[in-house]
UniProtKB/TrEMBL annotation:
Family to which this protein belongs: Belongs to the OsmC/Ohr family.
Annotated GO biological process: response to oxidative stress
Identification of the protein by name: Organic hydroperoxide resistance protein
InterPro entries: KH_dom-like_a/b, OHR, OsmC/Ohr_fam, OsmC/Ohrsf
Species annotation: Xanthobacter tagetidis
Superkingdom assignment: Bacteria
PANTHER family linked to this entry: ORGANIC HYDROPEROXIDE RESISTANCE PROTEIN-LIKE
Length: 142
């Protein structure tokens, strides 16, 4: 599989889950903190799972907008939301793994039309394509 890259970005992390992460262009610079559930102190800061959830939710909403712009599906209302929940834990095969749930709200869109739009977006979203076959992603329409 090849990708015709239209945009790329780079970020650098130091100190692992108790350090910092920043994009090389300076647009993002964040303190990292390990959550209590993973043995951390609960100090102020973000963690990789939060960053993944933020990125996936924004990307999936954009994928729905893209699909809708191509015609043949419901329009995406301005107040549409995608909530991504990312869980981390040990895998039975060893190491750690992620679980993801995407909860989509499309106010004013009929359920069947909303579900069709979500399914089509799931086929084109870069995060969905990256996780497919590796991470269980549960989709729901509110």
């Amino acid at each position: 599989m090849s990708v015709n890259v239209l945009y790329s970005t780079s970020a650098r992390a130091t100190g692992g889950r108790e350090g910092r992460t920043a994009t090389l262009d300076g647009a993002l610079d964040l303190k990292l903190a390990r959550p209590k559930e993973l043995g951390g102190t609960g100090a102020q800061g973000v963690n990789p799972e939060q960053l993944f959830a933020a990125g996936y939710s924004a990307c999936f909403l954009s994928a729905m907008q893209f699909v809708a712009s191509q015609g043949g599906t419901a329009k995406v209302p301005a107040d549409a939301t995608v909530t991504a929940t990312v869980g981390i834990g040990p895998r039975s095969e060893g190491g750690f793994g992620l679980e993801i749930a995407l909860a989509v709200s499309l106010p004013g869109v009929e359920r069947a039309a909303a579900e069709a739009l979500v399914e089509k977006a799931h086929q084109v979203c870069p995060y969905s394509n990256a996780t497919r076959g590796n991470i269980d992603v549960k989709l729901s329409v509110a």
